[in-house]
Please model this.
Amino acid sequence: MVLRLPIAHFFEGVCFGLFLSMSIVTVQLGQCGNQIGFEVFDALFNDSHCPRGLCSKKENEAYQASCKERFFSEEENGVLLARAVLVDMEPKVINQTLSKAARSGRWKYGQHSCFCQKQGSGNNWAYGYSVHGPRHEESIMNLIRKEVEKCDSLSGFFIIMSMAGGTGSGLGAFVTQNLQDQYSSALKMNQIIWPYGTGEVIVQNYNSILTLSHLYRSSDALLVHENDAVHKICAKLMNIKQISFCDINQVLAHQLGSVFQPTYSGEGSFHYRRNPLGDLMENLVPHPEFKMLGVRNIPQMSENSLAYSTFTWAGLLKHLRQMLISNAKMEEGIDWQVRPPLSGLPPLGKMSVNREIHFNTSIANLVILRGKDAHSADVGAFKDPALYTSWLEPVHAFNVWKTQRAFRKYERSAALVSNSQSLVKPLDRIVGKAWNMFASRAYLHQYTKFGIEEEDFLDSFTLLEQVIASYCNL
Ligand SMILES: Nc1nc2c(ncn2[C@@H]2O[C@H](COP(=O)(O)OP(=O)(O)OP(=O)(O)O)[C@@H](O)[C@H]2O)c(=O)[nH]1
Ligand SMILES: [Mg+2]
Model:
């Protein structure tokens, strides 16, 4: 696969940053994966076709071209097709997703990019993994291969799924493993949705530990969003009263868009970064034992409030850093007392031990700045060695990506992708709950009857206990 760029446009490309990007093939699995996938493509499309962008026409065109190459191919009539494969074991959600995209009138899914069956996996991971997986392996991998063949140059796969259901989680783990076998040099990043803590499904903790442990073996990075955290953002920051999955998915899509949309390839450069997934991995996953990533975003608010707000980079970055170290998912309710240990600040008195425990240590952070004067923003506070584990130099642990092209309606917006301890607590909680059920052998027969044995559960527990211990010891 080679990069094709018409010679006539080559020099123009050099001058105006039209270096085409490598492409990402998205695989949307199950209800959750398909509903989120739609919102992600819609957000990417709408942002890149936003008329303002607060930059020159030429720059806007370069940004648009880069986004297109990453996430869309083009039909002869100019309509954009998402570089995506849709998989579910029941038709309802896929049909809804296809028609929502078609209704947008501006982009759609390919006619032959879906695979669905008549009956889902009934929230049973084992059914998705051991029954649907092998049975439909060939058809699904063929669809993915066709999508890969449409890319001039492949950066990797973005696989969207929940971890609590049966199809997205079980079949998603199966497909990820196949991608690892068949495209070992392409990167695989899984977007996984952490279930509500209150629990919608009794076996969600079983499904979750099986998903996480399998992905830990076959994926390069797990980008995690917790439904509880996004729900709170909808309630507190977006002021939504009756919160639906659609609202949650739009917040999620906003966060993902602010990570995946183009940024300049380096300090002082006006070319857009070519290999988005490769660069993300290089910046954020320095060791395969640590591959759980989270995203934070600022500012986030309803359009009405946005019209009356102004922000400075200094203010946004100060909040974002405190959100990181105090492990807050949104700017409201940040604990400003949390400080880095050994940062040279005066001791905090007798609470200090507790506070230091609450300090969220990072392995790696990537700050992404979009909008007015992004080049002048000072990110020095993220380079403090006290924020990071001691085995990695801050110069390797911190990176910043920028573009002066504004994101959606935000004059300035910042995203932070972190590999940090922030998922240890929720992971420990899920492993604990699953272990309690496992100890009393509850519901195990539903898994063993489809070939997932006690031994597989024990392997999952061992692997995840190890992950928890590694993150705790940072
Ligand atoms: N954020 C978000 N979470 C969702 C959405 N739909 C389902 N979920 C979550 O996903 C989990 C259930 O998984 P689903 O994706 O519905 O299951 P599935 O993959 O279709 O599998 P089966 O229906 O069992 O075949 C629960 O934790 C839900 O909270 C969605 O649109 N957005
Ligand atoms: Mg389903």
Remarks:
- The mean pLDDT is 91.
- The longest strand covers residues 362-371.
- The two ends are 40 Å apart (CA to CA).
- The chain is about 45% helix and 15% strand.
